[in-house]
Amino acid sequence: MTPTPKTEAGKAGLEAILTDPSGTLIGLDFDGTLAPIVEDPAAARAHPAVAGTLARLRARVGDIVIITGRPGQDLVGGLPVLGHYGLEQWADGELHAPPEHPGVEVARKALAAMELPPGVRVEDKGHSVAVHTRQAADPAGALRALDGPLRELAHANGLAAEPGRFVLELRPPGMDKGVALRAYVERTGSRSVLYVGDDLGDLKAFDAVEELRAAGIPGVTVASSSDEVTELAARADLVVAGPDGVVDLLASLCERIASGAA
Ligand SMILES: O=P(O)(O)OC[C@H]1O[C@H](O[C@H]2O[C@H](CO)[C@@H](O)[C@H](O)[C@H]2O)[C@H](O)[C@@H](O)[C@@H]1O
Q1: Most exposed residue of 15, 76, 113, 203, measured as fewest CB within 10 angstroms of its CB?
Q2: Name one GO molecular function term (predicted).
């Protein structure tokens, strides 16, 4: 059964999706939403039911897009991916990306020269560098201690500091998941939108859904909840329990659309 949104705007958004699914864009975050959180970023994999569920859903809605902080070259179940918070954009069957921001190379070198606490890992993503503290003995303490120096490094090199789940990422400014989602809605001519996310970077996509609603495009914000980040659940129209809950929600949406139930 599809859970009922807790807000009136969310209920109206879900109703619009069920009434006109071919006009719907489903926007999905990856880590913590489609993929359970794991210690090592390189070991993250989509929930085993994601590929099948999205394949079925794809046949029933207008569009599905993954919007992630990760690089966008990987496809999840053949779906378009907007990588690096939308910096890498999918258009006409090709992935487009700007040249690397010069500040990233400076930050990369500075991080290589820094003595980082044990367990702190640097993920080099090409267009950005992310400093992860999940594997430190005290992940929250390590992140707090690094926050100031990393923000200074970002600022000194014209980069934005993007906080996330036990991570602070130094990345080019000027793009976020909200800008990416709005542009994708415009490009696809979507008439409704549902966005699911779990981390602070997804709040911009929630902003975008709310702005789209104000402009007459109904939508639903969904939080894939965790104890690590509570801001999304506090704001979302609908809260589900992590990737298991996301898969259940998408599967139930699929069934309701297939049964023609508005
Ligand atoms: O926008 P997303 O798809 O959610 O990507 C955000 C960041 O996710 C990854 O880090 C997070 O997941 C890791 C694997 O579960 C976890 O170890 C880490 O603590 C999380 O912060 C990814 O590594 C980052 O590059 C993404 O920006």
Answers
A1: 113
A2: trehalose-phosphatase activity
Residues 49 and 82 in one domain: yes
Tens digit of each residue's pLDDT (9 = 90 or more) over 133-176 = 999 999 999 999 999 999 999 999 999 999 999 999 999 999 99
Residue 126's domain comprises 102-171
Question: What's the full length of the chain, in residues?
Answer: 262
Any domain includes 251? yes
Sorted by sequence, the CB contacts under 8 Å of residue 217 that are 6+ apart come out as 185, 190, 191, 192, 193
Distance 143 CA to ligand 1 centre (A): 15
* Ligand 1 pocket, residue 37 CB under 6 Å: yes
For residue 33, how far is its CA from the centre of ligand 1 (angstroms)? 10
What is the ipTM metric for this complex? 0.99
Look up the CATH number of the domain holding residue 212.
Answer: 3.40.50.1000
134 lines ligand 1 (CB under 6 A): yes
pLDDT over threshold 60, residue 70 = yes
